[in-house]
From TrEMBL:
<dbReference type="GO" id="GO:0008684">
    <property type="term" value="F:2-oxopent-4-enoate hydratase activity"/>
</dbReference>
<dbReference type="GO" id="GO:0005737">
    <property type="term" value="C:cytoplasm"/>
</dbReference>
<dbReference type="Pfam" id="PF01557">
    <property type="entry name" value="FAA_hydrolase"/>
</dbReference>
<dbReference type="InterPro" id="IPR011234">
    <property type="entry name" value="Fumarylacetoacetase-like_C"/>
</dbReference>
<dbReference type="InterPro" id="IPR036663">
    <property type="entry name" value="Fumarylacetoacetase_C_sf"/>
</dbReference>
<keyword id="KW-0456">Lyase</keyword>
<feature type="domain" description="Fumarylacetoacetase-like C-terminal">
    <location>
        <begin position="94"/>
        <end position="265"/>
    </location>
</feature>
<dbReference type="GO" id="GO:0047437">
    <property type="term" value="F:4-oxalocrotonate decarboxylase activity"/>
</dbReference>
<dbReference type="InterPro" id="IPR050772">
    <property type="entry name" value="Hydratase-Decarb/MhpD_sf"/>
</dbReference>
<protein>
    <submittedName>
        <fullName>2-oxo-3-hexenedioate decarboxylase</fullName>
        <ecNumber>4.1.1.77</ecNumber>
    </submittedName>
</protein>
<dbReference type="InterPro" id="IPR017630">
    <property type="entry name" value="4-oxalocrotonate_decarboxylase"/>
</dbReference>
Length: 266
């Protein structure tokens, strides 16, 4: 992926304000490439970086990153064929078993993901899955609640990168495990909504191995001139397609070996 940019500083600030407004007041906007058809991935990351800078200036704590569009199911669902990354803050975290409000979201969807917590700095380029596993304190099951700010959940990669990879909320839970005690390629997951199975898959769906997605994320960070600090919380990407939720829905994600994560929407 090239980080080449075409937008002026003024355009980046303008688009960041547009995204920030849509995220904080929960309304849908047209995808950014309608107005800026020549936008690049680098432009998308420039907007995302400016958004991160603003949130941190407002007191949000940057706790980690998420890899997105790392499985075939997700790429096919969204019509995109390159993975992406987004940042995670403390404000997006929700406790396990909690009631998550949908009033401050546009059109939320849930996905099952394997999350990693690191205890060593990871530096790209050329970061490998082995280095990621070596730097992993533990893995845990997570549900990401994504919420594209683009109308109809329709976008291209440039726009979704600017919208911080549709990041909205996340819930970690289950059992923390040392990845050395597990085969992270073969973990089965089942997502239930209101007692019915709505999606299922195996962790190998994420780039063959979820640690591979974390390595990819570290290598994208390197292109942005950044590293992944020790103590980061990283979500490796949805294993199955994302499932829409609405008030009243109960969701439980059951992960082989890692336990389950549940929540309800109000
Ligand atoms: C982009 C975010 C994708 C994942 O796990 O693949 C993502 C989107 O589908 O809106 O978080
Ligand atoms: Mg995700």
């Amino acid at each position: 992926m090239s980080m080449e940019t075409t937008l002026t500083r003024e355009d980046i600030v303008r688009l960041t304000e547009r995204i920030e407004g849509a995220q904080t007041r929960a309304y849908a906007i047209p995808k950014l490439t309608n107005e800026y058809p020549n936008m690049t991935h680098g432009d998308g990351y420039a907007v995302q970086t400016e958004l991160r800078r603003r949130f941190i200036a407002q007191g949000h704590r940057h706790v980690g990153w998420k890899a997105g569009l790392t499985s075939k199911a997700k790429m096919q669902q969204m019509g995109v064929n390159v993975p992406s990354i987004g940042f995670l803050t403390d404000r997006m975290a929700r406790p396990e078993n909690s009631a998550i409000s949908t009033g401050d979201l546009v059109h939320p969807r849930v996905e099952c993901e394997v999350a990693f917590v690191t205890n060593k700095t990871l530096i790209g380029p050329n970061c490998t899955k082995e280095e990621v596993l070596e730097a992993t304190d533990y893995v845990l099951p997570a549900v990401e609640i994504i919420d594209s700010r683009f109308s109809g959940f329709k976008f291209d990669l440039e726009s979704v990168i600017a919208d911080n990879g549709s990041s909205a909320r996340y819930v970690g839970g289950g059992r923390a495990r040392d990845p050395k005690d597990l085969d992270l390629r073969t973990l089965g997951v089942v997502m239930e909504k209101n007692g019915e199975m709505v999606a299922m898959g195996a962790s190998a769906a994420v780039l063959g191995h979820p640690a591979e997605a974390v390595a990819m994320l570290v290598n994208i960070l390197a292109e942005m001139g950044e590293t992944l600090p020790a103590g980061s919380f990283v979500m490796s990407g949805g294993i199955t397609e994302a499932i829409a939720v609405q008030p009243g829905d109960n969701v439980i994600a059951r992960f082989q070996e890692l336990g389950s994560v549940s929540m309800r929407f109000v």
